[in-house]
Amino acid sequence: MGNTASCCVSSSPKHRRNNHSRLEPYRQEPELSREDTCCNLQHISDRENLDDLPMEYNPSDHPRASTIFLSKSQTDVAVRNKRVREKRKSLYINHHYPGPGRRKYSSCSTIFLDDSTVSQPNLKYTIKCVALAIYYHIKNRDVDGRMLLDIFDEKLHPLSKSDLPADYDKHDPEQKQIYRFVRTLFSAAQLTAECAIVTLVYLERLLTYAEIDICPANWKRIVLGAILLASKVWDDQAVWNVDYCQILKDITVEDMNELERQFLELLQFNINVPSSVYAKYYFDLRSLAEANNLSFPLEPLNRDKAQKLEAISRLCDDKYKDLRKLAKKRSVSADNLTVVRWCPAIIS
User: Fold this and answer.
1) Closest alpha carbon to 196 in 188, 186, 207, 208
2) What pTM did the predictor assign?
3) In what helix (H) or strand (E) does residue 16 lie, and over which residues does it extend?
């Protein structure tokens, strides 16, 4: 989790790093059975195999299952595209042609590329896409309402000492508000763009496992818990819980520890994010950005970038050339060999 004392120590990071010197010597205790410990956690061998579960209910575990945020955004995108088509049709009929398009297209002389890849995403636009995904989660949540856990209720565990409006849980937050909240945490904690994608994976995993919805009353604490966990799992030098208390001045370390503990329990301690699931979320975020006219910034391919791409391509080609040589058979049996041979025709 990045550090082992994050959930139980509330002192400064310096003191926590020196705590191991004051620990008592380890003394082996007699082995206890699972019945004696009254532990209700399943052994890993007793858990249900994830491959046997329906894929549509586990998008954060199965690479082939569609992400929840993309499916929730398709309704609004379809309505928006219909309006755009009607507007374009009206402009064409009335001979009021729109101005030049803002989208850039590659040509024979100029190739436009963005600097975002699956291994190194663009930080700013990745956070924007994640905020947009959270926005669609809140906007298109279940109308009947599902269980609201106390640990995520901002009224019971406020992030600020200022009084919340009486109808704070009635109005959906705007996309800009979600983006500002996420960007503030990522900027202050100096988190990476990959951490934002893992944050979205943990958020959807929480909603699936705990069978809850993200709504105006709990979205901030759910996002905070997902960022807290993703930063500890992904980054080598994790951000301490006390550091988040310096970013959010009115929150206590005890509250952060309890939020992290319950978040882990609701995830059933499943913090593994396979590379295939990560890649799926990355490309689905790009699809979401494309559908909402939130394209990644394009820049013309210059000489330096072209040389770097050529060097990387040559390096990969040399790497896999040896593998292809090893995989190639040196001898082939002529038994039962059937080959269609073409012979030149001689016309006299």
Assistant:
1) 186
2) 0.68
3) helix 13-17
Residue-wise pLDDT for 109-164, tens only, equals 677 777 778 888 889 999 999 999 999 999 998 766 567 889 999 888 988 888 78
Helix (H) or strand (E) holding 299: strand 298-300
Place of tokens 């009206």: 90
10 pLDDT exceeds 50? Answer: no
Contacts of residue 286, defined as CB under 8 A and 6 or more positions apart, other chains included, come to: 116, 129, 296
Q: Do residues 250 and 161 make contact, with C-beta atoms less than 8 angstroms apart?
A: yes
Instruction: Provide the token pair at 240.
Output: 């301490």
- CB-CB contact of 244 with 251 (8 Å): yes
What gap in Å lies between CA 226 and CA 230, rounded to an integer? 6
Q: Which two tokens stand for residue 259?
A: 């939020």
DSSP SS3 for 14: helix
Q: Which long-range contacts (CB under 8 A, 24 or more apart) does 19-28 make?
A: none
CA 270 centroid distance within chain = 15
Per the structure block, which two tokens stand in for 246? 């310096």
- DSSP symbol at 291: H
List, in sequence order, every residue forming a beta bridge with 112; answer none if it has no partner. Answer: 300
Give the pLDDT confidence score for residue 179 in this predicted structure.
Answer: 96
DSSP letter for each residue of 23-68: PPPP-------HHHHT--PPPTTTSPPGGGS-GGG-TTT-TTSPPH
Residue 307, Cα to own-chain centre: how many angstroms? 31
**C-alpha–C-alpha distance, residues 178 and 186, integer Å:** 12
- What is the rounded CA–CA span in Å between residue 159 and residue 221? 8
Per-residue pLDDT tens for 68-82? 888 888 876 555 555
